[in-house]
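Example for tutorial group B:
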């Protein structure tokens, strides 16, 4: 009687290496979602979103900024990307911008996809 039949040993090796192969790679939480995220860009969505929800206070040309800080402008893609980390923080995480709220869930998903998956 063999102590450890060959098929059992083989099964063990597959189990161990199989587990390492999947769980061992640190892909981070965003990567699998980005594989299936809609392609969101400044021109197909971002510009319109910023104009609708943010530019009322944050446009560089505003004379009445409703207290929005000088220098926090979202008129161009570059300005948005420079501020991407802050935008993620205040719109997606703390949800303190826009001050009146009102961003629908679908737009939050698109904003998340745009800033996490489609920008460098
Ligand atoms: C009704 C006016 C108004 C609208 C609309 C608005 N903001 Fe603001 N925003 C402010 C004011 C006032 C501040 C400064 C006070 C504060 O930080 O809460 C500010 C600050 C910020 C800051 C800097 C916060 C920090 O702590 O660095 C960011 C980033 C920002 N807003 C992003 C946005 C984005 C993105 C939108 C659109 C989704 C938006 N805001 C819409 C008024 C507005």
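The residue assignment follows.
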């Amino acid at each position: 009687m063999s102590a450890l039949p060959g098929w059992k040993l083989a099964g063990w090796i597959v189990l161990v290496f199989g587990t390492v192969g999947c769980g061992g790679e640190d892909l981070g939480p965003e990567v699998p979602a980005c594989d299936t995220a809609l392609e969101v860009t400044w021109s197909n969505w971002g510009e319109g979103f910023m104009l609708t929800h943010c530019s009322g206070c944050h446009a560089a040309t505003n004379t009445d900024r409703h207290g929005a800080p000088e220098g926090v402008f979202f008129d161009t893609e570059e300005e948005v990307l420079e501020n991407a980390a802050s935008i993620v923080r205040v719109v997606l995480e703390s949800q303190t911008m826009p001050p009146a709220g009102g961003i629908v869930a679908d737009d939050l998903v698109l904003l998340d996809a745009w800033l996490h998956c489609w920008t460098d």
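The pocket of heme C is lined by residues 53-54, 56-58, 66-69, 72, 83, 86-87, 90-91, 96-99 (CB under 6 Å). Compare this with the pattern of hydrophobic and polar residues in the output above.
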